[in-house]
UniProtKB/TrEMBL annotation:
Protein name per its UniProtKB record: Tryptophan 7-halogenase
SUPFAM superfamilies per record: FAD/NAD(P)-binding domain
Pfam families cross-referenced by the UniProt entry: Trp_halogenase
Record InterPro entries: FAD/NAD-bd_sf, Flavin-dep_Halogenase_NPB, Flavin_halogenase, Trp_halogen
């Protein structure tokens, strides 16, 4: 076929068998029905990054796309349920708040619930006795109580407002997706890619060459090679935009530990003096890690912080990981699309990396180039993914910047650094009248922004004047009733462990 005639896309080659590679293989294998062959190359010698255990609720969409039975998936990956993230010591040393999945209260006649809460909490007397904002979010109340059940389909019930995701074993998740993919026709090739051949005609990738000389050609290449970015970065030369000036953490230490107590249905993120620690409960162990900025803390101190913070015994030595926050300037270049760490990295503070893989896959499926490559599709893909990275970046920066901590050079840097204009506008809106306007297509809901802003920022100067259209006493009664219903609903839920025992405990 002449090089000028667009070729039908019949062969997709995925390089890398980490979470990104197998998620891509499982989802793209749906295309095999349309005559597209999917091949995945991975190297067991190189291995995978082996971390990435906490998710957000969007994973339900991915599971649905693959027709995954949730109990079987939880059992296979030794997962637990996640109702949110508890942030400890971020706004101030000693304080804590929950960023829960799900919604806070219920809007009343066009008035946002958190605005109502803000007004009532400034009033003396019974109508102002409204407690904390998270007492109006079922996911937060259930998380604090260590309870879990699945949400109700009936939108009229409080239980319909519950949101949840999972904590799982990343290695087992990869294995699970591999089984699904191989069943639907994906071919797996073991081998190390040692060279990438590019077409002299248009610079597209023509083939990857493995050690031993085997050549694997294709029309579309999906780079899931992890931080190495073998195809998009190395072969295609797409530059990396660093966001380290806003997100200075560039190292992590990770170690699993034994479980010592009941399984918590939430992730805990505890701020330290130069970064933070995660605690992720799985059925068979606890995942722990310490993310820190090497400009502000050395490795020995970081390891000491990590090990001192464990509530069980360490199961082995800590793994060392290095990274830089940022993203490739284009995630789709020529005939190469990068997913996962090969495309970019944002630290796991809000557990968004697996979501970004999923988002890349679903946009690739919706713009899939059946014949040749049109720049309109590539440009749209790049625009949407870039926007999503930037929106998540801003949300993560918020956690570092919205603080009064001045106990270390790290926090002094984060508190006083310049931040993107897209974020400073949002903070200003919150500070004056607690307004939160969600970005078009933004991943984080108003409730997420409200949780973090209310959890870390000082109280806003005022509230939305619309609230004053609602009578104070009546609003107080409504809120007391709602808080009571949420508390009773949470109390009636099974304990998280008991729910797992009943439905999805691994053998
Ligand atoms: P990898 O797992 O590194 O896989 C790369 C693959 O490419 C491997 O199979 C490797 O063998 C293969 N490969 C590389 N070079 C070659 C070659 N030359 N030839 C053949 N094969 C090759 N995400 C979340 O969503 N939640 C979290 O809680 C979370 N926590 C994290 C904590 C830390 C400290 C870090 C660093 C990341 C975390 N992530 C998290 C991100 C998450 O780990 C990754 O996004 C996810 O695992 C996807 O990784 P990957 O598949 O892109 O890369």
């Amino acid at each position: 076929m002449s090089a000028d005639v667009p070729r039908p896309i019949r062969k997709v080659v995925i390089v890398g068998g980490g979470t990104a590679g197998w998620m891509a293989a499982a989802a793209l294998s749906r295309l095999t029905a349309a005559g597209v062959a999917i091949t995945l190359v991975e190297s067991e010698d190189i291995g995978t990054i082996g971390v990435g255990e906490a998710t957000i609720p969007s994973l339900h969409d991915f599971n649905r796309l693959l027709g995954i039975d949730e109990d079987a998936f939880v059992r296979a990956t030794r997962a637990t349920f996640k109702l949110g993230i508890e942030f400890v010591g971020w706004g101030r040393i000693g304080d804590r708040y929950m960023h829960p999945f799900g919604t806070h209260g219920r809007d009343v006649e066009g008035v946002k619930f958190h605005q109502l809460w803000l007004r009532q909490s400034r009033i003396d007397g019974a109508a102002g006795d409204v407690g904390r904002l998270d007492e109006y979010c079922l996911s937060a109340v259930a998380a604090h109580a260590g309870r879990f059940t699945r949400p109700s389909d009936n939108p009229a019930t409080v239980l319909a407002s519950l949101g949840y995701a999972f904590h799982f074993d990343a290695g087992l998740y990869g294995r699970y997706l591999r089984q699904l993919s191989e069943r639907t026709g994906v071919t797996r090739i073991e081998g190390r890619v040692t060279a990438v051949e590019r077409s002299e005609h248009n610079g597209h990738i023509a083939a990857v060459v493995l050690d031993g000389g085997r050549r694997i050609d294709g029309e579309l290449f999906v780079d899931c090679s992890g931080f190495r970015s073998l195809l998009l970065g190395d072969a295609m030369g797409v530059a990396f935009d660093s966001w380290q000036h806003w997100l200075p953490c560039d190292r992590a230490l990770a170690v699993p530990s034994t479980s010592t107590a009941a399984l918590l249905p939430y992730t805990r993120a505890t701020a330290g003096t130069a970064g933070w620690r995660w605690r992720i409960p799985l059925q068979h162990r606890v995942g722990n890690g310490h993310v820190y900025a090497s400009a502000f803390q050395d490795e020995a101190q970081a390891e000491d912080d990590l090990l001192r913070g464990l509530d069980g015994a360490a199961l082995g030595d800590a793994r060392r990981l290095r990274f830089v926050a940022g993203v490739r300037q284009r995630l789709w270049e020529g005939n190469c699309v990068a997913l996962g760490l090969a495309g970019g990295f944002l630290e796991p503070l809000e557990s968004t990396s697996i979501h970004l893989v999923q988002s890349g896959i679903s946009r690739l499926l919706s713009l899939f180039p059946d014949t040749g490559f049109a720049s309109a599709e590539r440009d749209e893909y790049n625009r949407l993914l870039r926007l999503e990275y930037e929106q998540i970046r801003d949300f993560i920066i918020l956690h570092y910047h919205a603080t009064t901590r001045d106990d270390s050079p790290f926090w002094n840097h984060c508190r006083t650094m310049d931040i993107p204009a897209s974020l400073s506008g949002k903070i200003a809106l919150w500070r004056s009248r607690a307004r939160v306007i969600r970005d078009q297509g933004g991943l984080f809901t108003d409730d997420s922004w409200i949780a973090v802003l209310a959890g870390q920022e000082p109280a806003p100067t005022s509230y939305d004047p619309l609230v004053d259209t609602l009578p104070v006493e009546e609003a107080g009664r409504f809120m007391h009733h709602l808080r009571d219903m949420i508390a009773k609903t949470a109390a009636a839920m099974p304990r998280h462990d008991a729910f797992i025992d009943r439905h999805c405990r691994a053998d």
